[in-house]
């Protein structure tokens, strides 16, 4: 796909993997709309890349609809969607408190929250972007658009306490090929990246010795991933028209331990 002049939506675009992807797409001449909750940071990034910011909660249908409407009014119908919005938690399915011996289980509302943000939120944006892409004239090879999703290596080797997170990311992996097949007749490609341990704002609060230990657990290179490396792969998935229906780990060959 020729990227220059295309319009794109990047969810979670105000920071981390989403910000890096928004910047990388803008460098290719793409008109980028950022979907995020962080208005201050989102407006700043959008201003720096010549894009537009849309304050969007991916769990809210009306908010997502308003975001797409604003983005399309400014840039036209997007041919590219990159889903980076997401979050996580660490709660065991059932556990015993060390101090009191009290037995507790995973709060179901917290499980549902992760599923709603990571999995349902991703699918909501996919469905709405794909419907819009169907209105576009086809490009070379009959291509109308490209969608890139963000899962995690936890989809395949989740650690203790990651039941909700792994379920949400496993769902993204599981729906990639069916959605690509749903859209194949209309020239819309769908791929998913499974990042390993990346140096993003989510990691900023971790002590340095924790970061060092995580970096040492990566076979090669022995460091955390950097957001531009994710962005590079996301851009290639958009550019390369033969990239379709794939789930690709980007992790330095790490396989996560149980804890």
From TrEMBL:
<dbReference type="InterPro" id="IPR002347">
    <property type="entry name" value="SDR_fam"/>
</dbReference>
<keyword id="KW-0560">Oxidoreductase</keyword>
<dbReference type="GO" id="GO:0016491">
    <property type="term" value="F:oxidoreductase activity"/>
</dbReference>
<comment type="similarity">
    <text>Belongs to the short-chain dehydrogenases/reductases (SDR) family.</text>
</comment>
<dbReference type="InterPro" id="IPR036291">
    <property type="entry name" value="NAD(P)-bd_dom_sf"/>
</dbReference>
<dbReference type="Pfam" id="PF00106">
    <property type="entry name" value="adh_short"/>
</dbReference>
<dbReference type="InterPro" id="IPR020904">
    <property type="entry name" value="Sc_DH/Rdtase_CS"/>
</dbReference>
<protein>
    <submittedName>
        <fullName>SDR family NAD(P)-dependent oxidoreductase</fullName>
    </submittedName>
</protein>
